[in-house]
Amino acid sequence: MPAKPEINLKNKLKEVFGYNQFRGNQELIINNIINDRNTFVIMPTGAGKSLCYQLPALSLPGTAIVISPLIALMKNQVDQLNAFGVNAHFLNSTLSKSEINKVKKEIMAGEVKLLYVAPESLTKEETVEFLRGANISFVAIDEAHCISEWGHDFRPEYRRIRGIIDQIGKLPIIALTATATPKVQLDIQRNLQMDEASVFKSSFNRTNLYYEVRPKHNTKKQLIQYVKKHKGKSGIVYCLSRKKVEEIAELLRVNDVKALPYHAGLEPNVRMKNQDAFLNEDADVIVATIAFGMGIDKPDVRFVIHYDTPKSIEGYYQETGRAGRDGLEGNCLMFYSYEDIVKLEKFNKDKPVTERDNSKLLLQEMASYADSAVCRRKQLLHYFGEAYEKDCGFCDNCLHPKERFEAQHEVQLGLRAVQLTNQRFTIEHITAVLTGLKNQYTTSYDHDKLEVFGAGKEHDVQFWSSLLRQILLSEYLEKDIENFGVVKLTQKGLDFIQNPQSIKITKDHNFEQEVKEDEEKEGTQAAAGHDEVLFDLLKNLRKKLAKEKNLPPYVLFQDPSLKEMATVYPTTKEDMAHIGGVGMGKVQKFGKPFLDLIVKYVEENDIVTAADVVVKTTVNKSKIKIYIIQQIDKKVDLEEIASSKDLTMRELIEEIEHICYSGTKLNLNYYINSILDDERQDEIYDYFMQASTDNIGEAVKELGTDNYTEEDLRLMRIKFLSEYAN
Length: 726
What we know:
Blueprint (H helix, E strand, L loop, with lengths): L8 H9 L8 H9 L4 E4 L8 H9 L3 E5 L3 H13 L4 E4 L5 H12 L5 E4 L1 H4 L2 H8 L3 E6 L19 H8 L4 E5 L4 H10 L6 E4 L7 E7 L3 H11 L4 E5 L3 H13 L4 E4 L5 H12 L5 E4 L12 E6 L6 H8 L9 E7 L1 H10 L5 H19 L4 H8 L12 H4 L4 E3 L1 H13 L6 H8 L5 H5 L16 H13 L3 E3 L7 E3 L1 H8 L5 E3 L4 H17 L4 H18 L3 H4 L2 H10 L4 H5 L5 H22 L18 H11 L4 H7 L4 H13 L7 H7 L2 H13 L5 H8 L6 H15 L2
Parallel strand pairs: 1-6, 1-7, 2-4, 2-5, 3-4, 5-6, 8-13, 9-11, 9-12, 10-11, 12-13
Antiparallel strand pairs: 14-17, 15-16
Helix pairs in contact: 2-3, 14-15, 18-19, 18-21, 18-22, 19-21, 24-26, 24-28, 31-35, 33-35
């Protein structure tokens, strides 16, 4: 076999990619591949993984195969390489027969340096047959964590890769991932038969990233405030469902944020257009499912927001890793609710048992991370098998520390429970033993007979789970790599059992309590939160105008609308249209004098308006409301409309009321005439014309339940307001 020519890697790096020097382990990894050695790379997002196989591919004769899980990722990387003047192609389901033949022809002519292939395409017999006859330099397996069933993104077809490579020929392999726990790392190496591979593991610590977790409460309002605080900066908002992606993208857009959606349900050309708009800074924010961002090389993403709780810490770490890839500011905010965890567990119910159990453990880890008041960075690094001694001082928990308490006795008891159950069980099982919970596991293993059974029942399951996880972080316990979820004692833990010492534990967050306190605070503020002087001025103006128009005052604007105006000080038609119960129709009809008054009041009193914290909504744009308006225009029976949208009559009337309060005129005469005669309609009309309020409870009291149902009165109120208020 002829000796390989000397390659000046630094020259190649500068000539093709424009970099003057390598980062971290890149040069060592590239040399390892060039020397035909199997290589396993664990490197966080943004640390330059792709260069580790791209540069050796350019330096070696033949074509390198890159196995990649996402079509969007392939296209993005191929486009980038083509821009550098590198001949790279992909083979996947988006190509036509003639395009595939063209790619194959170029490979056989030795013109292609990198060929990106989806694992599904690689398993096709004709692809294997073709590659067997080509000059292949090596195989790179990107997103290698997909191999492991213990990981967060397991793909069964990835487990067949080794067998297919063997069919193609004896080739060196480089496997790369940004997220691998010690357990996943072991599984990848075993499956690829790479036990002897050189392993290059970079630190998972992204020092420029700030991690924060907030409870899901007034989430839309918090989101708008947060994004507006970072106005003009690039950001990604991750949601769990396509429907939520569309809703949040629209919410941001109506609140003057340049935002676009990205998910697998969009037409490929729309998806690509939105991705390009984000990369080219024509959009500031992309709202996406996790399908977005894998391999997207945008260095200046300044914030990553998880609107919904992610499915695993691996997924969370990988997605937050898209922030601050240039080493500058990167903010990572997650909105957390245990309800999200419950919802995600329900999604897993149809999976095979092992996969379901694994998913449950990953979700438990996610919930524990969110609830924990310990340094976020320490938790993340520990999860990936990396020790981090001190607190980082740069996460929400470090900047706002929670109370710590002495726990010498409890720690000794927890460690003893692990010891007496023979170090073969999960944290969940140990907490059941300590709290004295009799279930099929504690009884079948006779753990209900142990001296520690129920010895910690003065504390709840959450307390013990938090304590055990904290002593895991402090290395009194360690994870059993061979058995997923199982914890064992370290020497430090054994020593503590024999010789216990003072130890402080941090109290977890109690997000439910925090939300409750926030709601109470908001309730108090709402009770007296509006500007009383402005409210009185607005009421007087309403009374004066109503008198001139010979209408009851509430027809113009109701009290809650005036209170909101006296809280947020709308100074434009658009701002006023987003006040509850107003809408553009009412603004056009009655708004000008009220706006003039507010503008003058704001100027005279030097008030900073709260327009930036008003969450504008898209009520009138929602599909169901448009559908209802169209059906009413066509004079369709209301029962029929309700039935077609699976609504009760009460729910339909509520929807119609929202439409009416937002200023849209509706003609319900065709339906009302079928249930009420003219005389009864006139009686209700006269009542609303004279009444000081349009409250239905008051109307029922005045007109009597024997004569009219609540439904009759609500429909007549809609008719009345449509004719006079809209």
